[in-house]
Amino acid sequence: MITGAGVSAESGIPTFRDKGGWWKHYRPEDLATPDAFARDPHTVWSWYDARRQGVARAEPNAGHRALARAEAAGCRVAIVTQNVDDLHERAGSREIAHVHGSLWQTQCTADGRVVDDRRVPLPEIPPRCACGALVRPHIVWFGERLHEPPLARIAAWLAEPWDVVLVVGTEATFGYIHEWALAAKRRGACLVEVNPRETSLTPACDTRLPGPAAEVLPAVLPGQSTA
To answer: Phi and psi dihedrals of 157, rounded to 5?
Structure first.
């Protein structure tokens, strides 16, 4: 399972590239790069604090819950998500690798220590570590390498045999998303795309299910109530 911004859109979390998405109103280089943070940490953190508040108000939607119900029903469901929210966890899913980090973690700019911080709103912007140094969001910004712990977890999952790999709510613009999806397909998994629109990954998929995740996933995943 590979999920992107589309799976959280119906919880009210803005996407990035769709109509009304973040990058229609802001430039990535102004908010999501190391240079932007070095230049103006207050503006960067103000944006992330607003996103944290939005996620705190949001609730998992039917797509998130369908995945959690499938897992609870006994299916093995491993989720590779590009999302930095925690809606998969709050729905009840347990095996999750956050490729791009988490809104709820900060990283000390002095020693690199990563800690959980769920304060909403943040009492100080930009926030600081107990040591006095600035902290940054523990997010993979443009131009940065992916974090090693989720990469190791994904590599272990890709070494396993999977019946189906669902690619849900992502434009698949990053090369590693293609690589992981196609690696699973080469090992025998049926590659299924769930998205209202075709993407760059569509030609490689065995099946395409057009529509939003909150409608499609409850209809196709096992373990769903018929009541």
So the answer is: -65, -40
Q: What is the distance between the alpha carbons of residues 172 and 200, in angstroms, rounded to a whole number?
A: 6
Which residue is listed with tokens 């109509």? 19
Residue 207, amino acid: T
* Tokens matching residue 13: 């979390």
Q: What is the pLDDT of residues 97-146, one digit of tens each?
A: 999 999 999 999 999 999 999 999 999 999 999 999 999 999 999 899 99
Domain 2-220, CATH: 3.40.50.1220
Q: How confident is the model at residue 162 (pLDDT cuts 50, 70, 90)?
A: very high
44 within 8 A of 63, measured Cβ to Cβ? no
Q: How far is CA 94 from the centre of its chain?
A: 14
Q: Indicate which residues carry an active-site annotation.
A: 100
Q: Mind listing the pLDDT tens digit for each residue in 202-224?
A: 999 999 999 999 999 999 999 89
Report, in angstroms and rounded to the nearest whole number, the Rg of the chain calculated over CA atoms: 18
DSSP state of 136: E
CB-based contact 107:135 (threshold 8 Å)? yes
User: DSSP 3-state assignment of 139?
Assistant: strand
Buried-exposed string 12-22: b where 16+ CB fall within 10 A, e elsewhere:
ebbbbebeeeb
What is the pairing mode between strands 164-168 and 190-194?
Answer: parallel
Q: Where are the domains of the chain?
A: 2-220
Give the C-alpha separation, 128 to 2, whole Å.
33
Residue 72, amino acid = A
- Which pLDDT score is estimated for 30? 77
Q: Which amino acid is at 96?
A: I
